[in-house]
Amino acid sequence: MSFQPVIPFSGAAGWAFLQRTKDVQQSAFESGAVLHRDVQYFKDNIGDITTAEQLVGDRRLLTVALGAYGLSDDINNTYFIRKVLEDGTLSSDALANKLSDTRYFELAKDFGFGDYNIPRTQISDFGTKTVAAYKERQFEVAVGNQDHDMRLAMSLERDLGNIIGKSTSDAGKWYSVMGNPPLRQVFETALGLPSSFGTIDIDKQLEVFQEKSERYFGSPAVDQFSDPDRLEELTRLFLARSQIAQGTAALSSNSIALTLLQNV
Questions:
Q1: What is the mean pLDDT of the chain?
Q2: 72-117: per-residue pLDDT in tens?
C-alpha cells in the first residue's frame, strides 16, 4: 500500500502540522512503486513524442501530462485534449484561448505542439520538469483525499505565483484567478462570496474581487500576495471560513434531522 498523508486536524491547526511535516510526508509518498514507475516511463518516453496524437494515444504518458496540470479528470477526453494541444496558444482562435480554465492554456503552451515546428517535448529537461510538477500535484491529490481544503491551500502559492509572474495588468491577473477553478474557490471562500457569484457579469466579478481584496488585505492588487505574510493571511482566512461554512452546514443538517424525528 502506498503512503497516505497524515492530516490529524482541520483548519489552521491542520495547516500548521502539514507545513511542518510536508517534506517528510511528500518524500515518503514519492517513494511509492506505482508513482515511481509512472514518472520513469514518462521520462524515458516523452522525448519520442512529437505530435499531440502520439501523446493522447499513450495513456500512461497522458496520465502524467494531465496530472502535472491538475487536469487528471480529462484522461478520457482524448479528442478534446488533442484539439487543445494541436491548436496551441498563439492564434486567437486556438481552443485554449477560448476556455475559461487557464490550465488548458498552460498545458498547450508548455507542450508547444501547435505553436512550434519542434515541440517542447524535444527539450532535454522537459520530462524532468513535467515529472516534478506531476509528483507535486499527486501529493496534493493524496492530501486532498484526507482534507480537500488542505489540497487547495497547498496549490495556492504555486498557482498564484504563476499568475503574479505574468507581465499583464492587474485586471488580467484577476481574470486568470477567475479562470483557475481551485484559485477561484479559495478566493470566493476567503472573501465570503456566495456559490452563485460566478454567474454574474465577469466585469462585475472583477470589481467585487478587487473591492473585497482591498477590504480584507489592504490592496486590490493580485501582486500583493507575492508577500509571504499576505499569502498566509489569505490561506488562513480561507481555511477559517471554510471550516465555519462546514460547521454551519452540519448544524443545519442536524437541525433538519431533529425536526424530522420530532415529527415522527
A1: 91
A2: 999 999 999 999 999 999 999 999 999 989 999 999 999 999 999 9
Q: Are 103 and 65 in contact (CB under 8 A)?
A: no
Q: With 50 as the cut, is the pLDDT of residue 19 above it?
A: yes
Q: Tell me the DSSP string of the chain.
A: --------S-HHHHHHHHHHHHHHHHHHHHT-HHHHHHHHHHHHHGGG--SHHHHHT-HHHHHHHHHTTT-GGGTT-HHHHHHHHHH-SSSTT-HHHH-S-THHHHHHHHH-TTT-SS-GGGSTTHHHHHHHHHHHHHHHHHHHHH-HHHHHHHHHHHHHHHHHTSSS-HHHHHHHHHTSHHHHHHHHHHTT--GGGGGS-HHHHHHHHHHHHHHHHS-S-GGGGGSHHHHHHHHHHHHHHHHHHHHHHHHHHHHHHHHHHHT-
pTM value surpassing 0.90: no
